[in-house]
Specification:
- The structure holds two protein chains of two kinds.
- Chain A has no helices and nine strands.
- Chain A is mainly β.
- Chain A has a five-stranded mixed sheet with strand order 1-9-8-3-4, with no helix packed on it.
- In chain A, strand 3 and strand 4 form a beta hairpin.
- By secondary structure, chain B is mainly β.
- Chain B contains no helices and eleven strands.
- In chain B, the strands form two sheets. In chain B, strands 2, 4, 5, 6, 9, 10 and 11 form a seven-stranded mixed sheet that branches.
- In chain B, a hairpin with a 6-residue loop joins strand 4 and strand 5.
- The N and C termini of chain B lie far apart (31 Å).
- The chains are: A mainly beta, B mainly beta.
- Chains A and B meet through strand 4 of A and strand 5, strand 9 and strand 10 of B.
Chain lengths: 111, 113
């Protein structure tokens, strides 16, 4: 099984940049790293996905070092509405390529 | 609005009841999924449908019975549930089976009493 490790929780303040790092030591050569966001009592929402170096969209940036054993989701200038759980996902190894969900990182943005 | 709609949003049922959860996607996707999310636990993949054919059943008890009449609709039929089945049930869809970008509905909060 692919395994990811990320902090259980983080605290931040409005206007700060938040970086959430995830380790995925056993990621396969061709696998992408995917991040989702989930608000309470809602379904997860896809944020960003990347394979290497840096990916940026209107919501976040994703930094992936050359060895791809970790990745960092960067949220610029967070607001209260960014309080959510953030999941880092990589596909399961082998023929079954399903995403394995962990408990994610619970981010609390304070005023 | 994700393009995936689940009804009802909340459901309370007794252990002897029969109920169904409904999911509809307006995205033209070929794959649909049922997930279960219990408190303090990761999302658990229950069923996967690809082009209306069930391609995965992750050892889910038979009291949960999925149905996919077409690629836009997915149902989860519930009967004789247990209190530990209380959870948030999420439906998702993706362009193809096991795509890493999936679109989730808002879920049905199920309470079994």
């Amino acid at each position: 099984l692919a395994k990811t490790t990320q902090p259980i929780s983080m605290d931040s303040y409005e206007g700060q940049e938040v970086n959430i790092t995830c380790s995925h030591n056993n990621i396969a050569t061709n696998d992408y790293i995917t991040w989702y966001q989930q608000f309470p009592s809602q379904g997860p929402r896809f944020i960003i996905q990347g394979y290497k170096t840096k990916v940026t969209n209107e919501v976040a940036s994703l930094f992936i070092p050359a060895d791809r054993k970790s990745s960092t989701l960067s949220l610029p200038r967070v607001s209260l509405s960014d309080t959510a759980v953030y999941y880092c996902l990589v596909p399961n190894a082998g023929n079954n390529r399903k995403l394995i969900w962990g408990l994610g990182t619970s981010l609390a943005v304070n005023p | 609005e994700t393009g995936v709609t689940q009804t009802p949003r909340h459901l309370v049922m007794g252990m002897t009841n029969k109920k169904s959860l409904k999911c509809e996607q307006h995205l033209g996707h070929n794959a649909m999924y049922w997930y279960k999310q219990s408190a303090k636990k990761p999302l658990e993949l229950m069923f996967v449908y690809s082009l209306e054919e069930r391609v995965e059943n992750n050892s889910v008890p038979s009291r949960f019975s999925p149905e996919c009449p077409n690629s836009s609709h997915l149902f989860l039929h519930l009967h004789t549930l247990q209190p530990e089945d209380s959870a948030l049930y999420l439906c998702a869809s993706s362009q193809e089976s096991m795509n890493t970008e999936a679109f989730f509905g808002q879920g049905t909060r199920l309470t079994v009493v």
